[in-house]
Design brief:
Blueprint lengths: L2 H22 L4 H42 L2 H33 L7 H4 L12 H6 L6 H7 L2 H17 L5 H23 L1 H15 L2 H4 L3 H27 L3 H18 L2 H15 L4 H14 L2 H17 L5 H18 L6 H13 L6 H33 L5 H5 L17
Helix pairs in contact: 1-9, 1-12, 2-7, 2-8, 2-9, 2-13, 2-14, 3-11, 3-14, 3-15, 3-16, 3-18, 11-15, 11-18, 12-13, 12-18, 13-14, 13-18, 14-18, 15-16, 15-17, 15-18, 16-17, 17-18
Bound molecules: aspartic acid.
The site of aspartic acid has 16 residues, from helix 17 and helix 18.
Length: 429
């Protein structure tokens, strides 16, 4: 049995066990204390930490190899501009589709406000957009690395790698060193991924034990539309772009994307999924490290198609509940703000909701309205993160194809880079 199938089986098992606990044993203290908040919580959190632990060193070494591999600052600029343009395009298409579908279906018209507004939502102050640009440049790279600030790490590492090229022969040993360290980090990814089934199981079991179906029922209109648009975007819009701009088979792509989507779904974090996305596009789909090492972490930080979709549907839903007419200007503002918010949204769990406050403020919707959708957000976060990660990989493929940086032989080989269980080395006597 290959690793992806194994991970999916454990994921479904976790989902079922979690749901059973939610239905039959939600109030059993023993199960809650020892299983849900005990074993599942510990194993799940350790697994997420293991993934997060890989991100900073992997991105750093991989990016140094990537930039030095390109060896041409002009090409680097071109790849960056193409990726940025495509990220904006996919997010704009995502939010437009979300608005179109929600305005047509009009969720929230008959919603009973008094019944459901039990939770208070106090919106934390979203950062002003100007700050997002200022924050691109770290005042202290060590802090940036320590905090895992992706954009700052990317900025510093690219600058460092360009200068490594500029110093010529003297930089050679460092570049060789980075290549070796990158190989080691890729092996660490393999080791961590070989225990993924259990980590994914624990995350699923915990989430579903705590989030019951009863939360979803009153919100089924909103919940259903977000899922519908996510599916249309991932299997429709993105695949059309992939086919026509990237000249790539969507079927093969989706098959190979499954593992990364499962990781995104169970961790709810595009950032924590970077090691898996990077591995998928490089090893499974044949994208050259010079493009992947830059576009994947860049996308995980600024490209959030799924988050934009949630924000679009949420805006229409809350506007309907409060009986506020948004009008064309309102919708256009929502499109602009959601694209900006998606750039400003770090790829970590739940921030999409915080950035929604920024969109609401701009179009004059009551921020307390966010309290209504908070209950179901945990589950939607999982789904939209899978969409976010798919968008990152689609853009990486399109950019790489345009730069002739994809090995189609690897892409077309169904078994290329497939995950194997890791054999630990024997200790020599
Ligand atoms: N969890 C999402 C991600 O990491 C961001 C969000 O929508 O909250 O991609």
């Amino acid at each position: 049995m290959n690793m992806t199938t194994k991970i999916i089986i454990w994921m479904i098992a976790g989902l079922l066990l979690g749901s059973l606990i939610n239905i039959f044993a939600y109030d059993v203290a023993l199960i809650q204390n020892y299983l849900v908040h005990g074993l599942f919580h510990v194993v799940g959190t350790i697994f997420i930490n293991l993934l997060k632990m890989l991100v900073v060193p992997l991105v750093t070494f991989s990016l140094i190899c990537g930039v030095c591999g390109i060896g041409d600052v002009k090409k680097l600029g071109r790849v960056g501009i193409k990726a940025f343009g495509l990220f904006l395009l996919t997010t704009t298409l995502a939010i437009s589709l979300a608005l179109l579908v929600s305005v047509t279906i009009n969720p929230g018209k008959d919603f009973n406000l008094t019944q459901s507004a039990q939770t208070e939502f106090v919106a934390p102050e979203p950062p002003p957009i100007t700050q997002v640009f200022i924050d691109l440049v770290p005042s202290n790279p060590v802090t940036a690395f320590a905090e895992g600030n992706m954009l700052q790490i990317i900025f510093f590492t690219i600058l460092f790698a360009i200068c490594l090229l500029m110093v010529g022969e003297r930089g050679r040993t460092l570049i060789d060193g980075a290549e070796k360290l990158n190989d080691v980090m890729l092996q660490v990814v393999n080791v961590v991924m070989s225990i993924a089934p259990y980590g994914v199981f624990a995350l699923m079991a915990k989430n579903f034990a705590l989030q019951g179906i009863d939360l979803i029922l009153p919100m089924i209109g909103y919940f259903g539309i977000v899922i519908l648009v996510l599916i249309c975007h991932v299997t429709g819009t993105l695949m059309l772009l992939l086919k026509f701009l990237g000249r790539i088979s969507p079927n093969q792509f989706l098959k190979k994307m499954r593992t990364a989507q499962v990781f995104a779904f169970s961790t709810s974090s595009s950032n924590a999924t970077i090691p898996v996305t990077l591995r998928t596009v490089e090893r499974r789909m044949g994208v050259d490290n010079s493009t992947a090492s830059f576009v994947v972490p860049f996308g995980a930080t600024i490209n959030m198609d799924g988050t934009a979709i949630m924000q679009g549907v949420a805006t229409v839903f809350i506007a309907n509940i409060y009986g506020i007419e948004l009008g064309l200007t309102g919708y256009l503002t929502v499109i602009g703000m959601s694209v900006l918010a998606s750039i400003g949204t770090a790829g970590v769990p739940g921030v999409g909701l915080i950035m929604l406050a920024m969109v609401f403020n701009q179009v004059g919707l009551p921020v307390e309205g966010i309290a209504l959708i908070m209950g179901v957000d945990r589950l939607l976060d999982m789904l939209r993160t899978a969409a976010n990660v798919t968008g990152d990989a689609v853009v990486t493929m399109i950019v790489a194809r345009s730069e002739d940086n994809v090995s189609m032989e690897v892409f077309n080989d169904p078994d290329a880079g497939i995950l194997e269980s890791v054999e630990l080395p024997h200790v020599k006597q």
